[in-house]
Amino acid sequence: MSFIEYKTIGAVVKEFQVRYTEAHFIEPLAFEISDYFREDLQLMMREGMVDNSEFAICENLIYPIIKEVWKQYRQNFIVWSHQALTFDNKLAGFPEYILASRSPLGKVVFDKPYLLLVEAKQDNFETGWAQCLAEMIAAQRLNQDPPITVFGIVSNGTSWQFGKLEANVFTRNIPPFTIFELDPLFAAVNYVFQQCEVQLARYAIA
After folding, report:
1. Measuring CA to CA, how many Å separate 186 from each of 28, 36, 160?
2. Which of 10, 68, 138, 142 is buried most, with the most CB atoms less than 10 Å from its CB?
3. Radius of gyration of the chain, Cα coordinates, nearest whole angstrom
4. What confidence tens digit (pLDDT) does each residue in 87-110 have?
5. Rounded to 5 degrees, what are φ and ψ at 197?
6. How far is it, in rounded angstroms, from Cα 118 to Cα 120?
7. pLDDT (tens digit per residue) in 139-194
8. How many of the other CB atoms lie within 10 Å of CB of 12?
9. Which of 196, 185, 173, 184 is nearest to 78 (CA)?
């Protein structure tokens, strides 16, 4: 069963026996945004067609922000775009983006742990989170031991929602963040990357 076949969060938590909760877990971590990035994003949003499809949302609104933060963490991580992620026939597919450990064999190796899954959806956050949570469960199971926290982001380009999977508990952050308030959004994404770095260190020690 492909990730895209999951349509509701309830169906996913029931099938995989994950408990659903909501909380305010994001602790914003300040990130310096260049003037060039701000101006370029404003130009694209004002003059370009940035959200007419999920592909457009990915390319124009989501990836630029993910990439900008990733640059600060590139020593340890690779961001993979539409890379196959397969645990079994119930948990398989192509997440929009996956933040994975940088392999000692080089950037061409898709190596675990898989720490952050990102899904784009045109205003259908219910389906977006159903798919993203299934992807997070697949990543968690592929990572195996030691148990680590896997993060997820679902966005329609303007609104960004964050979640995390710890053991069998999925927590969705309250509230969402918006691209119209760049500093808090970048601080939230930066926090998630920093937490992924912490998880990677724990994984390496075990």
Report:
1. 8, 15, 11
2. 138
3. 16
4. 999 999 999 999 999 999 999 999
5. -65, -40
6. 7
7. 999 998 778 999 999 999 999 999 999 999 999 999 999 999 999 999 999 999 99
8. 22
9. 196
Q: How far apart are CA 161 and CA 59, in angstroms?
A: 18
Within its chain, how far is the Cα of 38 from the centroid? 22
C-alpha to C-alpha distances, 67 to 24, 37, 52, 77, 169, nearest whole angstrom = 25, 11, 21, 11, 28
Domain 3-205, second-level architecture:
Alpha-Beta Complex (3.90)
- Burial of 102: CB neighbours in 10 Å, binned 0-12, 13-18, 19+: middle
Q: Give the tokens for residue 91.
A: 């948990």
Q: Which residue's entry shows tokens 């303007």?
A: 158
Contact between 124 and 6 (Cβ < 8 Å): no
